[in-house]
Amino acid sequence: MIADAIKLELNTTLKTLPQITLQRFVAGKQSDVPISRVDALLDIEGISSMTPRIWGYYYFKPAGVNFSVVGIDAYEEQYSQTLSKLTQQFDPKLLESEHAMIIGAGVKKVLSENYYTDFFNFVTSEGKWQKVSIAGIFNSDLTLESNDLILVPKKLAYAIFGMDESKATDIVVKVANVKEIPTIVQKITERFPDLRAITQDDIRVSYQNLFDYKSGFFLSLFSVCAFAFFIIIYDKTSGLSSEEKKEIGILKAIGWSSDDILKEKFYESFTLAMGAFLVGIAFSLFYVYGMQAPLLRNVFMGYSELKPSFVLPFSVDSSMFVLLFLLSVPIYIAATLIPAWRASSLDAEEVMR
Amino acid sequence: MIVLEAVSKSFIQGDESIPALANISLHVKRGECVVLKGPSGSGKSTLLSLIAGLMQPSQGEVRVDGKEISKLPEHFSAAIRRQKIGFIFQKYHLIVHLSVLENVMTPLIPENLPLHVLEMKAKAVMEQCGIAHKAKMRVNRLSGGEQQRVAIARALINDPLIVLADEPTANLDEKLSRALIDELAILKEKGVTLLIATHDPLFFDLGFVDKIIEIHNGEIIV
Asked: ABC transporter domain location, by residue (chain B) (predicted)?
């Protein structure tokens, strides 16, 4: 359930990511991209728009968390739907004139806990204070994307990161036809070998690998539980305890037939197995969606510094419930009925003895 | 009511066949009280188990109320036990994790009677056996005498035509034994057929006993 919920959020987030992101690498390290490259690349056929981005992480030491700081420009097309919506809500020109920022709900919580309610002092790369007032708080549908986000005017972002205004962190490329993405990527890298193009698919695969790896960790835990369950089942199937055998013998002696005993055993095991199954499912739902999966969630959410504010979206895979049901309830009932049937087919006197 | 014709029973132990009863013939009329006496291991309990249909004879016929219980399908022999026979076991054979009330109700559960009817019948026999005040107590917390009374109440809940009692006083003191004998006398007055396997001398000179049969090494002596 945890994996499903986070996958749902990630898949929705991935859809909003840029089709191609261009990063520059110098000496094997990521470096800022000269904005002049935008004009140089725009003549490649198939590219519909290019947006240089200014962004980076700001480490807030008192809380031990990283904020994602993104620079926005009133005159540029926003590269994601979330940013487009936010720039409609909050005027970037006003942010620039008032030296202000808008922040995600998670950032707001962390700053409030540290007594920053109206403004925040950034420490720039030169070690100077950069006071920025808080103009607003946003709540996006995509909490994973926006929870740790701080939107500042581009000029302010340059100042905070100490970047040259002729450069950008990376460049976001939009193409007219998604089928042409591989060709366009090839053309870009041929023209500028120091640029690395990351496509939406690359990010999806990389997230998928990460999730498969972490899901695998849980699968191994599940395997241990399943193994323990099947040992119990094996133990139950291989024979009844002398107490249980004696009970069956007593029931036969006082007038129960084998059918009556098996019927009773069926009701008993069905009630027990079905009850345990429903309680388990209810507990899981409450643990994951009610309590937000304390402890286990951190295994999946390792990359997010603002973990506590992330809300797992409700996502339930009915086939998983069917599989769990088939793996537990009928098997438990069978494991109860088979030895009971064996014992009830013997003479009562023999079983009691 | 109860007819045994040339009944033998042997138990197989490894390659060996150990005879428990040999060529037993017995007729017990409706409402009669018969005491089976004999030392331990003489075959008294085996005889009662054969009459109740808890085991099959190796040879011969066992008829209860006109039906040959030893040859009936299991479902029908279980119904006869449930509807016509009350069995008081020597070791009580109560279900330890159930309460007194639940133990007493157990024989009638397959009859699918409404719960309130079951409870009403159980309470009536518990009153009769003087154990009603412990109805909700688990049987493993009762004394031996109290457990015996629960076993009797369970045997009587179906208003049986026949009561089979296997060493009913084996674990009781003399006072409780006499109380049990009084209970059996009342049953006899009601017309219930009684078959009591015992080596307790208290049973040998009772006024309501019609017949005393001695068994020794699996054979009827007297």
From this structure: 2-222
Which DSSP letter does residue B97 get?
T
Using CA atoms, how far residue B66 sits from A222, A325, B3, B4, B183, in Å, is 61, 50, 8, 11, 27
Q: Considering CB atoms only, which of A256, A259, A349 is closest to B54?
A: A349
> Does the pLDDT at position A143 exceed 60?
no
By the 8 A CB rule, do A161 and A56 touch? yes
DSSP state of A261: H
Q: Give CA–CA dist A190/A186, Å, rounded.
A: 6
From residue A124, alpha-carbon distances to A116, A131, A163, A188, A189 in Å are 17, 10, 10, 33, 33
* Inter-chain residue contact A260 with B78, CB threshold 8 Å: yes
Element at B59 (helix H, strand E):
strand B59-64
Residue B26: partners with Cβ closer than 8 Å, 6 or more residues away: B2, B3, B4, B47, B213, B220
Q: Which domains does chain B have, with CATH numbers?
A: 2-220 (3.40.50.300)
Q: Which of B82, B94, B222 is nearest to B162 (CA)?
A: B82
Where do the domains of chain A lie? 2-205, 239-352
Query: Lowest mean pLDDT: which of A2-6, A148-152, A282-286, B81-85?
Result: A2-6
Please indicate whether residue A149 or residue B104 has the higher confidence score (pLDDT).
Answer: B104
A352 and B93: CB-CB below 8 Å? yes
How far does the CA of residue B81 sit from the closest CA of chain A (Å)? 5
Given a cut of 90, whether residue B95 has pLDDT beyond it is yes
A338–chain B nearest CA distance, Å? 18
A257 vs B54, B74, B107: nearest CB:
B74
CB B50 within 8 A of CB B62: yes
- A2-50 pLDDT, tens digit per residue, is 777 777 777 777 777 788 999 999 999 999 999 999 988 888 989 988 9
**pLDDT at residue A309 greater than cutoff 70:** no
Which chain A residues are Cβ-neighbours of B109 within 8 angstroms? 256, 260, 264
Q: Give the best residue of B21, B56, B95 to mutate against chain A (max A CB count within 10 A).
A: B95
If we measure between CA atoms, which residue out of A336, A44, A2, A36 comes closest to residue A189?
A44
% of chain A residues with pLDDT over 70: 93
As given in the structure block, the two tokens for residue A209 are 């690998």
Beta carbons of A105 and A147 less than 8 angstroms apart: yes
Q: How many angstroms separate the CA of residue A334 from the nearest CA in chain B?
A: 22
Is pLDDT at A170 greater than 90 in this prediction? yes
